[in-house]
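Researcher: Let's continue the batch. This sequence belongs to Sodium-dependent transporter, and it's 533 residues. Same format as the previous ones, please.
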Amino acid sequence: MTDVKSEPPAAGAQPREEWTGQVGFILAAIGSAVGLGNIWRFPGVAYENGGGAFLIPYLVALITAGIPILFLDYAIGHRFRGSAPTAFRRLGGRARRWTESLGWFQVAIAFVIGLYYTAVIAWALSYFVFSFDLRWGDDPAGFLTGEYLQVADPGFSLDFVPGVLLPLALVWVAAIVVLALGVAKGLQRVNVVFLPLLVVAFMILVVRALFLDGAAEGLNALFTPNWAALGDPNVWIAAYSQIFFSLSIAFGIMITYASYRKRRSNLTGPGLVVAFANSSFEILAGIGVFATLGFFAYQQNVAVSELEGLTGVGLSFITFPAIVSEMPGGPIFGILFFGSLVMAGFTSLISVLQVVSAAVQEKFALTPRGAAVGVGVVSAILSILLFSTTTGLLALDVADQWANNIGIVASAVLATILVVWVLRKGPELRYHLNAVSTFQVGRIWVLLVGVLAPVILAYMLIQRIVTLIVDGYADMPAWYLGVVGWGTIAFIVVAAIVLPMFRWRRSPDDFAAWPPYPPSGEKPATARKGAAS
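Model: Same format as before. Here are the structure tokens for Sodium-dependent transporter:
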């Protein structure tokens, strides 16, 4: 299918930015989906939820929820040609003020995630440098929380940690520059360079890990199936949760990215490529991580099941440095691992920030560069104040829990119910996907998006809210969780209510979706033929 030029811009409007073609869009979308969670979350989740058997619910979740919601985001962004607030406003018709709020809800989530996600990339950048001389020594855990992050008790501190502040500032400068260069010259070019580099670096890392002593035991620990786990509902919820969080869906990224595709562009085919490429990288990450953990268990003369720190910050910044210190050629392995973290994190970060930049640009009629610099500078200041201090690690941990497990999941539940049941837009969006795409979606797609996805996600949301209220989180004081955790959700809700009240500098409502729906005497097959010309 050949991309053609889009419609001319409205009078007084800037020409809409676009990807240069399908390959650029696919690489950018994969770059967004492949992030830190692929490397440090999937292997541990799979291991703890049935090992090899986990791949069954994982694939079911990918097909029944991940890909359908990814298509939903693509359809909304591409048909209504805007950032999340613009697209949802146009989608809503007469209810546009309320639907715009959902768009700002997603933008606020992206804003919060951008603030702390940058800090993790800064840590990875620091550890990339530390790998050259194994600076963490014989006590990686003590080095991380003591010498490097200088972690204090829960609270709010302005005691800045120079070792974090400098790389954090560098990451923000790089992110602002990329955003200011625009969609094609900034985001696309970074992904065209970083994504192949990431794959090559990680492949070298995996091949090296496979030849370590004990690698086979690590892979057996990961892939040996525990079939009994398939009878546990929590294993299935874990699968849907992993797919949901790893595909960059339901918080504005794919809506924004799809809006930069030309009017006549294939959507579902590239969507399948993005989804399966993301899952392939997760499985590759699982192989690399557990082959390495097998070596570590062999060196410690223990079973893999006896190791600690198999996910998240503990895996990346405590367990892996300890492994690097013990393995032959450790510094090179550390350089590859932390370099991969930096590249995977950065391509995801710029997609998150683009959600905010695009929304501000359209709401206030700014240039892409002006919006990027404005959003970037404000975000950088807040990020440095919150996450380069001695209390940064704790604030990051709590904000991440609430923004991801409550904010994003709530956004998905609201979006699916709003689109399918309240606005009844499922058939129109299905028609749009089929009118421009090679891979056709049937009525089952509307049922998956409108029934299965919201039911499972609502269960996840309620379960997590109850757990956080009853049990708290990580033995942290209730007042701290209230301020940082629930305060994050309060900020997101307030932003969703207040921002639609601001006047649009250039009205987004003078807009006609293409192709027209319902089609006047034209069958979807005819539209598809025209789309392919």
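Researcher: Any comment?
Model: DSSP finds 21 helices and no strands in the chain.
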